[in-house]
Each structure stands twice: as structure tokens, then as C-alpha cells.
Design goal:
213 residues, 4 helices, eight-stranded mixed beta sheet, Cathepsin B, Chain A, mainly beta, four-stranded antiparallel beta sheet
């Protein structure tokens, strides 16, 4: 992927000083190309305060909304101890398998917090062509992916448990695994879970879809 980074002046500086700093080369946008093992998808921030009714409502977000991080134009601010940066990302190559890590957990000095937002995603036919830079789109004949595995985290960050949804390629059926228990599961039930890590397989032209979802 390409990673574009732009350093930001300190927010407390006067406007004139900020404008001067932005002219310096240190504050100009820079681009590096990097390989990746998986793509981290950021969830919208959970509301800080909830009334009784809102506690019954679990926030939801479409998969394509959080994938927009990699469209080459969406900017996000990243903060370090001393400096702030704006970053944007653009994919330049799509591998046969993609791993998504949905960022549910955040750490601070005191505890780990979990974001319960549900990600709405299709099981099949997720096309990532629009996240490629225009000049490399022609080199990618196949850009559509099908889900083949889904890892779910249930419960609180410190005492929760994990379940795994796995596609059986021979039959096209989905199974849920938890410890030694294996049960059938309908594809539409997978999308209701608090997905944490997902594995997607690129669909080849001669490959028929056996999932029936």
C-alpha cells in the first residue's frame, strides 16, 4: 500500500505561526510504499453517555464505511506523545487472501475498553477495485472476495471468549467452532456477531460460488 503522511502543527499555536510552519518541508506530505500483513479497520467511536433506551441499541456500521480508510483520500489524525500527523492510505496490490482486523479494543493507562459496534458485511462478492490506485487497477483482473473465516469476541475485554465461523469449501456450509464444539450456522447469523478478525479469499474467474449466500 501507499502511506501518505503529513505532519501537523501543534493545535495550541497561533494561526499565523501554524501557517508559517505549513510552508516548511517538514510539514509537507510524504509518501512511502509498504507491504502489509493485514488491514486494520477502525470503528466509529462509541457514545460516551447513554440513557436507558440507548443502552438497548447496539451501534452498527457498514463494512464499506470502515474500508474507506484505504480509498486514498480519507484522512485520519494520528497522535504521538509529541506530534500529530494526518495519514491516508491507498492499496496498490491485492493478495489472494486478505485479513481484516476490526479494531475493537483500545488501551489507556487504566484499562482496556471494547467497542461493541456491529459491522454489517456481505458474506460474498465484496469488490475492492475502488480502493486500488487508478494506475494499478488494470493489472488486477480479479478484485472480488468471499469470506471464508470469521473470528468473534464475545463479552468483556478481560473475561470474554472467542468463537470461529469457518466455511467448508466441499459443501459450501458454514460451521461455528468454540473449543471442541462444532455446530452448523446459517450465513445470515454470522453478520450479527461482533466480528474481530476476518479472512477473505479472492474469487478467480473460473471459480463458482458454492456458498449460496
Amino acid at each position: 500500500m501507499r502511506i501518505f503522511t503529513k505532519k501537523l502543527p501543534h493545535p495550541d499555536l497561533p494561526a499565523e505561526e501554524k501557517a508559517q510552519l505549513l510552508q516548511n518541508s517538514e510539514y509537507q506530505e510524504r509518501m512511502v510504499e509498504s507491504t502489509f500483513l493485514y488491514l486494520t479497520l477502525d470503528l466509529p467511536t462509541s457514545p460516551l453517555y447513554k440513557d436507558e433506551k440507548e443502552q438497548l441499541i447496539i451501534p452498527q456500521v457498514p463494512l464499506f464505511s470502515i474500508l474507506a480508510k484505504f480509498n486514498g483520500s480519507t484522512e485520519k489524525e494520528y497522535k504521538t506523545y509529541k506530534e500529530n500527523f494526518l495519514k491516508r492510505f491507498q492499496l496498490t496490490r491485492l493478495p489472494p487472501y486478505l485479513i481484516f482486523c476490526i479494531k475493537r479494543f483500545t488501551k489507556n493507562n487504566f484499562f482496556v475498553e471494547k467497542n461493541p459496534t456491529i459491522v454489517n458485511f456481505p458474506i460474498t462478492n465484496v469488490d475492492l477495485r475502488e480502493y486500488l490506485s487508478e494506475e494499478v487497477q488494470a493489472a488486477h483482473a480479479h478484485t472480488t472476495y468471499d469470506l471464508i473465516a470469521n473470528i468473534v469476541h464475545d463479552g468483556k475485554p478481560s473475561e470474554g471468549s472467542y468463537r470461529i465461523h469457518v466455511l467448508h469449501h466441499g459443501t459450501g456450509k458454514w460451521y461455528e467452532l468454540q473449543d471442541l464444539q462444532v455446530t452448523d450456522i446459517l450465513p445470515q447469523m454470522i453478520t450479527l456477531s461482533e466480528a474481530y478478525i476476518q479472512i477473505w479469499k479472492r474469487r478467480e474467474e473460473d471459480e463458482t460460488n458454492q456458498q449460496g449466500a
